Protein 1
Amino acid sequence: ISISNGNRKTGNIPSLSFPAVKTCRKDAPCVKKCYALRLERLRPNVHQAYERNLKIWIENPELFEIEFGYMSQNYRVFRLFVSGDFPDEKFFKMACHVAERNKNTVYYAYTKRFDMVNKYHDIIPKNLKIIFSSWDGLDMENPFNFPVSIVIPRGQEIAKKDLNKVCGGGCDT
């Protein structure tokens, strides 16, 4: 599988990604403005790596789990999905198992797969940090109070007192 060494947005935090849109919710309203899809179009090698990751997951999930667990275990922090999302419940459960085995690594993932995360909230280990990625027009049930990342469209005002932290720049800064 292909692991990224980081990017301008996250610094030197390694990540595992899948192709943009393909593994995302079918009703995700962010598809039209997807930064990851633009990146994949600009860098075909990145797109190929993400496609290869998904192909390995689909064709040989046992091998994928072994490689993912081995390749992520020596990092302090590891991100799932700069591009893409949890493709299915089996992958979500596998990510929980890998995190449970690699207790010295903090894994985190932004996701719009709210229903799946809520369904399996009780198996998520403490070192797997799930952040719900909200988007205007997307219904989000959050009965277990997962942290929420909110995209604020340019020019739209929001009361900063309602937020924990406001990012001062774009995704590339």
Protein 2
Amino acid sequence: WAIRWLVVALSLTPFSILTRKKPGLYVRQATGIAAFIYASLHFLFFCIDRGLIQTFSETGYILGLIATLVMFVLAITSNTKSMKYLRNLWKKIHRFAYLTGILAVVHVLLLKHGDWFPYAIILAIGFLLRLSFIRNTISKLKKRKTVAVSPSF
């Protein structure tokens, strides 16, 4: 569930690019924090079942731990006080969410714990939609469509 919520959180901006409907900050915060809570619970139950030392036994486990630690930083700075205090640094810190998405997909891929491919495709499409030339092309197409549909008096 952690990777699902993470993909949802990272898909909010591509969704807004495609639909021009920007989800509120509280939606972004809630999905990101939900991803962190599920990742933390996953890590906790893994440690209870296999022990903390097992976390460092395989690359896939280490990547999952790193992703969870990055999400921890994102979760504790996901509030308005942190935004005001950190200002421009806040946005730079929260760009690490993209790294977390990649780490989570590679974690699932290396450990063969489920189907990683749909998440990789959704994230790849989301990353492509964020590229400025693709975003600008979509915006121009939408403007052209809006102009074509507008009635002329």
Protein 3
Amino acid sequence: MKRLAEIIEGQTIFHASASDSVRDVAKMMSDRNVGAVAILDSGRLVGIFSERDLMKRVVAEGLNPEKTKIANV
């Protein structure tokens, strides 16, 4: 089994802050053509936000992406 470091070696890893709005993160993902981003809080990895999270936890739940913070998703 490969280690995470081996899988991501040479890849650009995009990240967002836990305090960013869902809309801002979704826009950044769209602009960079990526399906997921690392979520940091004070420089510490606290999660990963993906297109599936956007659909299932925001859109399907009827949350407002402008007002919802990634930390709440």
Protein 4
Amino acid sequence: MNPPLVLVVDDEKVNRLLVRRVLEELGYRVAEAVDGERALEEVRKETPDLVLLDLEMPGMDGYGVLK
């Protein structure tokens, strides 16, 4: 069985890298997206168990993703 998948959505690369490092050390699989549009693409590929979503991003923000 695969470990849980966490999707990290943030326009700041440093934030994504930091969260990825912590989650992978805890045994999670991690997918990343830099904006809302890409987050929705990732969700369509494989449904994550958890989404860590930045609310303030250029383009489609986190609120748009939730809608």
